[in-house]
Amino acid sequence: MKKICFLISFLYILGNVLGQKKGVTEHGDPVILYDDGTWIYENMANTLSEEIPVNAEIFTKNTNSGFQIKSEKVNMSFWIDPKKWQFKKAEAGGEGEYELQSKAGDLFCVIITEKIEIPLETLQNIALENGKKVAPDIKVIKREYRMVNGLKVLLMQMDGTIQGIKFSYFGYYYSNNSGTVQFITYTSQNMLEAKMADAVELLNGLAVTK
Predict the structure, then answer these.
(1) For 54-208, which CATH superfamily applies?
(2) Predicted local confidence at residue 39, as pLDDT
(3) Where are the domains of the chain?
(4) Chain segment 22-60, per-residue pLDDT in tens
(5) pTM more than 0.85
(6) What is the 3-state secondary structure (H, E, C) of the chain?
């Protein structure tokens, strides 16, 4: 459960502000707490409280994505083009269930699954917190809802720096009663535009296992 659920140590409560409370995470980052148990970073409050737009386009699996990777944890599949992607199970104790790499190079993917259903609005905060653990300067660049193979998913792009390298994370987030999926591609920020078509094609292979 560490991939999605993490400990927040609330060191102080500053009082109510319009039904909200303030606290800090175990890492010392100020957060705003809501009565329903959700929270957001204080410096992201304006961004993440904005209504998430809905992309009117309908996204479907590419006809060349004919190889099915099935999750062993949740009732989800990931259809890939085996000519473009190689994959393997993630190492034991790692964050993901599967790891993928583009055969063309410079584009990677991790599939993180967990047997717990989480609202997408909450999942975005968890994804941001997990990102801050490796890239303290990470920030949300883009958010939108998409319909992908009949599923309502959250698309989110986050940019951050890891060991001096500027990375972009571009992924789909989805949850149902079988669990939660974080399907995330990543590359260097200067390569994202060139790799965007391959990333979107891969992500559009997300589907419920039948």
Answers:
(1) Mog1/PsbP, alpha/beta/alpha sandwich (3.40.1000.10)
(2) 59
(3) 54-208
(4) 777 665 667 766 665 655 656 555 455 578 999 999 999
(5) no
(6) CCCCCCCCCCCCCCCEECCEEEEECCCCCEEEEECCCCEEEHHHHHHHHCCCCEEEEEECCCCCCCEEEECCCCCEEEEECCCCEEEEECCCCCCCCEEEEECCCCCEEEEEEECCCCCHHHHHHHHHHHHHHHCCCCEEEEEEEEEECCEEEEEEEEEEEECCEEEEEEEEEEEECCEEEEEEEEEEHHHHHHHHHHHHHHHCCEEECC
